[in-house]
Design brief:
By secondary structure, this protein is α/β, with parallel strands linked by helices. The chain has 16 helices and 14 strands.
Length: 420
């Protein structure tokens, strides 16, 4: 039986859900796909219809994510679900299960490794059997990290051959933008509602990967990028745990596909937040560890809930347009006597956690539609990652939006003022 709707935006009444709805409504290829919006409140959905100016061709679906029958009814005749309803530990599993059962494809914004580990264990095989493409983490966590690592590997393989093995891969983040109320709520939920042993298991190296790789560096107060000149300094990056796990899963999936697609057994990925100086990096790291210790205290979490934006709230349009991020990745071969290096740069214009995230998850859903409409063979289903599932097609889509620039080249360590 065919599917009636191409895309369903679940959680359309939230702040990011509204941005996604607006983006899809004004998309240059709008005539090529259909989409619907879904949420718990019929009144709030009606408000979104009025605010965005949606036409009668956009269906409005009332869904209770705590009711499995309601979820199944909503997703079974849809090609791709865009799920923005978090924290996913609370409300995501029923949606993934329903999508896997009904061969509905799925993308979300999950940064929760503990939840991703659970759905991999529970539904990866089911999604594989039904050829359902399930891709968590299709926003700022963790598409930029996955793409930056992928680009450098691709460049080295093009230069040196498809079975080239890559060793160290490091990404440096610089950005301007805010953290959403939903993201903060997710962090607090993890600390209060998820068993500590579950969090610990999900924080382990390669916790999401089907293959165990080489150990990655532990927390450092000062990070440096190998190879890049002048020397780049940085501090621990809050999102690195979520991002590294996704890149490691991409690596593991590609390793299982064979040496021509795999990154190589020596691949080790890390990332950090770029700072201007060694001292600044150290002080930032100290402040982060102090803040982490405070957040472990329940009175501090109570105060945070009072002070931070509530889920569904976000910055002004003007401030979102002023946001940006830039990631530089450098990767080196491990299979040659003299290492060869690649440097890749991913740049985006717009608030990373809001505006650009809405673009990334929307284009991921559209890339899945492209893939499924042109595939001649059986589609590989399962709990996948942006680069293991979509690769170049997603990069091309993002570039066409006009918000992204991608560069990748063989790099010779010399004084490079562009890195500053």
């Amino acid at each position: 039986m065919g599917k009636d709707t191409d895309i369903l935006v679940l959680g359309a009444t939230g702040f990011t859900g509204r941005l996604i709805t607006r983006y899809l409504h004004h998309h240059p290829q709008r005539q090529d796909f259909t989409f619907s919006i879904a949420g718990r409140s019929k009144a709030r959905l009606a408000d979104i219809v009025d605010q965005v100016g949606l036409g009668k061709d956009v269906d409005v679906v009332v869904v209770d994510v705590e009711d499995s029958e309601s979820v199944e009814k909503a997703v079974k005749d849809v090609k791709v679900v865009v799920n923005t309803v978090g924290p996913y530990w609370r409300w995501g599993s029923a949606v993934v299960r329903a999508c896997a059962l009904h061969r509905t494809h799925y993308v979300d914004l999950a940064g929760e490794n503990h939840w991703k580990k659970k759905v991999i264990e529970d539904y990866d095989f089911l999604a594989f059997k039904t050829s359902s493409i399930i891709i968590p983490a299709c926003g700022f966590d963790s598409i930029p990290s996955d793409i930056s690592a992928y680009l450098s590997v691709r460049t080295l393989k093009k230069k040196l051959g498809p079975e080239t093995r890559v060793g160290k891969s490091t990404s440096i983040f610089r950005l301007q933008g805010g953290m959403s109320g939903g993201t903060i709520s997710t962090i607090l939920t993890a600390l209060e509602a998820v068993p500590r042993k579950v969090l610990a298991a999900a924080a382990a190296d390669y916790a999401l990967s089907p293959v165990q790789g080489k150990p990655t560096p532990f927390f450092q107060f000062v990070y440096t990028a190998p190879v890049l000149r002048p020397t780049q300094y940085g501090a621990y990056w809050l999102m690195s745990g979520a991002n590294k796990a996704v890149v490691q899963r991409t690596w593991g999936i590609k390793q299982l596909r064979g040496p021509s697609e795999g990154y190589g057994p020596d691949f080790v990925y890390d990332e950090f937040l770029g700072r201007k100086s060694k001292l600044g990096s150290f002080l930032f790291g100290m402040a982060f560890m102090s803040g982490l210790a405070l957040v472990m205290l329940s009175p501090v979490r109570w105060l945070l809930k009072k002070l931070v934006p509530a889920p569904g709230e976000g910055p002004s349009e003007e401030s979102m347009q002023e946001g940006w991020f830039k990631i530089i990745n450098v990767a080196s071969t491990s299979s040659l006597p003299q290492p060869v290096h690649a440097k890749s740069t991913v740049t985006a214009r717009g608030d990373p956690g809001y505006l650009v995230t809405a673009v990334m998850i929307s284009e991921s859903a559209l890339a899945i539609l492209d893939l499924t409409s042109t595939a001649k063979d059986k589609i590989e289903g399962g709990i996948l990652t942006p680069m293991s599932a979509l690769g170049d097609s997603l990069i091309e889509r993002l570039e066409k939006t006009g918000r992204f620039d991608f560069e990748s080249e063989i790099y010779t360590p010399e004084e490079d003022k562009k890195n500053v």
